[in-house]
Amino acid sequence: MKSTTIMIKERISVDLALRDSVGIFFDYLESIPQKEITVDFSNIKSISRSFAHEYTIQKKHSKKMIIETNVPENIKKMFEVVEQPTEKKVLLDLRTIRAVTL
To answer: I need a labelling partner for 88 at 20 to 30 A (CA). Which of 7, 31, 35, 55 fits?
Structure first.
């Protein structure tokens, strides 16, 4: 199987920040005829939580086999953060609070 390598910094930026740019990037990936695509994260400086979250969602729904390479440690950590499910903590149970007239 022949794989195509895409340098993400050339398609987007060295700073991956905007959630909307993920959709455009994945539209591009889906237009590539090869089934296997390697996304090269060389020289990426930063990634926002929203970008990483949207990237993981788009990757799960993609028809392509997407493999990441040369992912810097700080970028790996952000992907780990967004892939770990977390429970929302309930600060106040509104069912138990009563309104008081002053």
So the answer is: 55
Length of the chain, please? 102
54 token code pair: 């949207």
pTM given for the model: 0.80
Q: If one looks up domain 3-96 in CATH, what number appears?
A: 3.30.750
Q: Tell me how far the alpha carbon of residue 45 is from its chain's centroid.
A: 15
Residue 100: other Cβ atoms inside 10 A: 5
The residue whose two tokens read 């993920």 is 22
Rg (CA), the chain: 19
Beta bridge partners of 46: 15
**Residue 83 burial class via C-beta count within 10 angstroms: exposed 0-12, middle 13-18, buried 19 and up:** exposed
Q: In what order do the strands lie in the sheet with 36-40?
A: 3-7, 36-40, 65-69
Tokens (6 digits) for 21: 């740019």
